[in-house]
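Attaching the record inline, Q. Sequence:
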Amino acid sequence: MVDFKRIPRSLDRLSGSKTGALVLLFVVVLIAWPGLNSGFQLDDYEQNLILQGDAEFPEAGQPSWWDLFCFAEGSAEANLARIDRGLLPWWSSETLRFNFLRPVSAITHWLDHQLWPGTPWAMHVHSLLWYLLTVFLCHRLYRRFTAATWAAGLATVMFAVDDIHAITVTWIANRNHLIACVLVLVAFACHVCWRLQGRASLGFAACGLFLVALLASEAAVAFGAFVVAWATAIETDRSWRRRLIGIVPSLMTGFAWLMVYRTLGFGSSGSGGYVDPVDQPLSFLVACLERIPAFLASLSGASSSDLVYTFFDGLGRSVLFSHHVLATLMAAVVVIPFLRQDRATRFWSISLVLSLLPLCAAFPFDRVLLLASVSSHGLIARILELLFHQRFPVAAKTSGTDAIRESGSQKLNGQGGLLTPSMK
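Structure, as predicted:
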């Protein structure tokens, strides 16, 4: 007969060992291996033309390497030139604008072209290395929220092998999400250390890394979701004034970036799939009501957000939306009972929902869910951990996770010590 109480201890030993890390590394590389031979896809071709100097437009001149993520300028002359060259479909609007400020990510593609031009498998390896670094940083983050090594290991494994990351990892032009995720996780680690230890230099480092992450991909705005979730769910022993002190620097950094971004004319418009929250608030609200359930269903494994615009329309789309709402409600039934008693559950839930809000401004695709999946897998592993320890309370003491429930009276101090011993 299986002794379920011994399972956490066995998993703890495996999760905390070098063997477990090497096994996970092997599995991730094995899963990603077919993608190394997938060659170039979609935007990769246009970016290669720019890097090779073959993308000259009579009306716009020769694009530079920092224009790698400019797919439509928004002017009639430039867009018609792209249509004539086949870089935009013939039905594209003359005012279509897909112009993104991502110089940090562009540098990595320029380096690819300098080191191994025309060698897609090497570029795929480059992207895979960013993903492996993301998995490592996720594990470090998950360890902060539990004393049970097996729970952190479970969250890491679920994140590492999640199929919604397939396109993110295997599409070279989508590397910007991987870079942004790495920088956001490092920035948040600095933010947490600043809040626990009181070292202002770490707060400045967090804001600096946040800015660099924004220059890698707009997806980095999810950093604000982690910061707000930490202040509202974790720093419950602090006054709201002190919590705001932790939030404001990041918000100011993001606001400054946004002002420069919009002033310089970056962004997207004219496609029908992108919604500007500032110029179209009602349309953005409607998009949130439709797309958040699709994202949550995708993150829970109940569906795929790619289906929303790819395969379904009319009645089929309505049925799919109903399925997404039902899957979201079922997940909420499981999570809500733990929100009040467990701060880690509140943190993962708040960061998940807030990280999905900016994604609702764009097409709902799985490939944009990398940062949101950090929170979703942390939440799933946390719920499973709490459910297991409700069923086997003796095992809860041995794993040390009761400390999380009993931490309401603990105070933040200069040495850390929040929630569990693993938070130190």
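The radius of gyration is 22 Å. DSSP finds 19 helices and three strands in the chain.

More tomorrow.
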